[in-house]
Amino acid sequence: MSAVLLIEDDDRIRLSLAMALEDEGYETHAVATAEEGLEMQRRQPADAVLVDLMLPGMDGFECIRQLRRTDDVPVIVVSARDDTHDIVAGLEAGADDYVIKPVAVKELAARLRAMRRRGRAATAAATPAMTVLTFGDLEIRPEAGEVRLHGDPVAVTRTEFRLLCELAEHPGQVLSRQQLLSRVWEYEIGDERLVDVHVGRLRHKIEDNTGRPRHLVTVRGLGYKLQP
Amino acid sequence: MRRAGLRTRVSAAFAIGALALSAGVTFVSYELISNTLFRERERAAVRATYFDATVVNAGLAGSDPEVGELLQALDIGADRYVLLYRQGQWYSRSADASAGSAVPDALQQMAATGQAGAQRIRRDSEAALVVAVPVQGEAVFYEIVSLGELERTLQLLALVLTAVAIMVAAGGAAVGWYVTRHALRPLAAVADAASGIAEGDLDTRLDPDAEPELARLTESFNHMADELSRRLQRDRRFAADVSHELRSPLQTLSAAVSVLNRRKDKLDERSAAAIGLIADEVARFQALVDDLIELARSDQPVHREPVDIGLLAGRALRDRGLPVDLVEVVPGTPVDWPIDRRRVEQALGNLLDNAVRYGGGPVAVRIGPEFLEVDDAGPGVPAESRPTIFDRFVRGPAANSRGGGDGTGLGLAIVAEHAAAHGGKVMLLDRPGGGARFRMELPQAESE
Question: Keywords on this record (chain A) (predicted)?
Answer without folding.
Answer: DNA-binding, Phosphoprotein, Transcription, Transcription regulation, Two-component regulatory system
